[in-house]
Amino acid sequence: MGVAYYPFPSRIRAAAYQGWPPVSGTEEAGMMIQSYAADAILIVHFAYVAFVASGFLLIPLGAWRVWRWTRSVRYRVLHGVAIGYVACEQLLGITCPLTLWEYRLRGGEGAPRAFVPRLLQAILFHAWPPMVFTGLYLGLVALAVFYWWRLPPDHY
């Protein structure tokens, strides 16, 4: 047994001793439910990131292929608000609520034990300096504004 380190975004690092103290069957069942809930939050978090990231690819592709849904005002506003929210969190030094919720459900352990959640967490979280994320998110906000200007949504 040892200490498991896992970098969380926005300056959170989780470390927990695994395996001690021993738990009863009822406690273990409760821990499994919390683990499944944390995995579900991780999936929602991944879907949020996938929505934002895919929007930056689909908006210009949709303009080129003349897909009307990529020019929908609702879609474009939702996409802009989604990346704007992330950029504001980073600028204000606020940790994402989904990250905190998942972290708390895991009991401070950090890394999930199952393969797919571990893979999703490895895709989502990196131990880069906060300034890298701030620059990235502000650049993406600028790109969303550029798309709004150069590839404007239809007003129908």
Strand/helix succession? EEHHHHH
The count of helical stretches stands at 5
User: Given the C-alpha coordinates, what overall shape results?
Assistant: elongated
Distance between the termini: 60 Å
Key descriptive features of the protein:
5 helices, DUF2784, two-stranded antiparallel ribbon, 65% helix, disordered N terminus, membrane, elongated, 8% strand, 156 residues, transmembrane, DUF2784 domain-containing protein, mainly alpha
What does this structure look like?
- The protein has one domain.
- The longest helix is centred in the N-terminal third of the chain and has 41 residues.
- It is built from five helices and two strands, in the order ββααααα.
- The radius of gyration is 19 Å and the shape is elongated.
- Strands 1-2 form a two-stranded antiparallel sheet.
- It is mostly helical.
- Helices cover 65% and strands 8% of the residues.
- The N and C termini lie far apart (60 Å).
Condensed summary:
It comes from Acidiferrobacter thiooxydans. 65% of the residues lie in helices and 8% in strands.
